[in-house]
Write a structure and sequence with these properties.
By secondary structure, the protein is an alpha/beta fold. Helices cover about 30% and strands about 20% of the residues. It folds into 2 domains: about 200 residues, DHBP synthase (Alpha-Beta Complex); about 90 residues, Threonylcarbamoyl-AMP synthase, C-terminal domain (Rossmann fold), CATH 3.40.50. The protein has an 11-stranded mixed beta sheet, sandwiched between helices. Helix 1 crosses helix 6. The protein starts with a strand and ends in a 6-residue tail after the last helix. It binds threonylcarbamoyladenylate (TXA) and magnesium ion. The site of magnesium ion (MG) has 3 residues, from loops.
Length: about 325
Amino acid sequence: MKTEIGNDITAAKQFLENGEPVGIPTETVYGLAANALNEDAVLKIFSVKNRPHFDPLIVHVFSIAEIKKYVQEIPAKAKLLFEKFSPGPLTVLLKKKKLIPDLVTSGLDSVAIRIPNHTLTLELLKQLDFPLAAPSANPFGYISPTTAQHVFAQLQNKIPYILDGGATSVGVESTIIGFENNEPIVYRLGGLAIEEIENVIGKIHVELTESSNPKTPGMLKSHYAPIKNLKIRKFENSEMEIHPMKTGVIAFDKYLDGIEKQNQILLSAKGDLNEAAKNLFAAMRSLDESDVEEIIAVKFPDEGLGKAINDRLKRASTDNRH
Ligand code: TXA
Ligand code: MG
């Protein structure tokens, strides 16, 4: 199958209506989308990505009114969050209606829903009469794609079309929130900062789940990982064995001493965590494809999107691989 890249919404729509998976842009990362109500189409997502069936998919819709078609109810706090942050990098777990196939939720009774903030994809969703199930458009466990070219590099010949909406503006996946006894809990740190959520609904628990926890089965410990070894350098002066020529660095706003500058990537020279998040996955990819033999990442400030960056680096790091 030849994979085309373009910005033709009608072409994307046609493939999706025929039950084919299509690469789509969002503000976080590119998704691999299919008709969420069509099990055969959803199965193709799992097989293209090589994704285990116990890892559920996020369902993307056009508006808050649409959400009501697929869930039993929207709790008041969830509604508040959707009103405040959608379209945007927010995913909420809500009790599903039967209409959503068990395959999409891996048998769980909640479905993850989000309204992505990208003009092309919102227009596409508006024109479709079904919602789109879409995980990130990377082979399972690898770095998420933030450009159409990243998707092409890994999924070419496996999908017919990639809708090209340029580089994503947020760069890390959506923040996932669920409710337990009406109390909101963050299960995945992401593109919507905890501080922003707390400004709206007050103090919120963060419970980052891993493969052993059935709440968000996809939060495997090792994920978002490059092929090369990646280590996190925790402190300014920490002694780490570094080969000046063979080590690649992912840093925030200043270069590390003693390592070739050309092997170092600053995620934001002006020290902006949002800009750093936007550049994170492309930096991991480019070092993975370069001549360096290992990658060192600095620890980012633990605030705003720095929390999501540190989470992704930790999951990508070699210490987390088994
Ligand atoms: O920003 C994003 O959320 C991107 C774009 C494409 O929208 N999507 C994304 O999907 O990151 P994915 O499949 O890579 O991660 C989805 C994660 C699952 O691994 C799981 O942890 C959680 O969302 N999830 C999905 N459905 C769930 C459910 N019903 N219950 C609990 N967790 C769920
Ligand atoms: Mg993913």
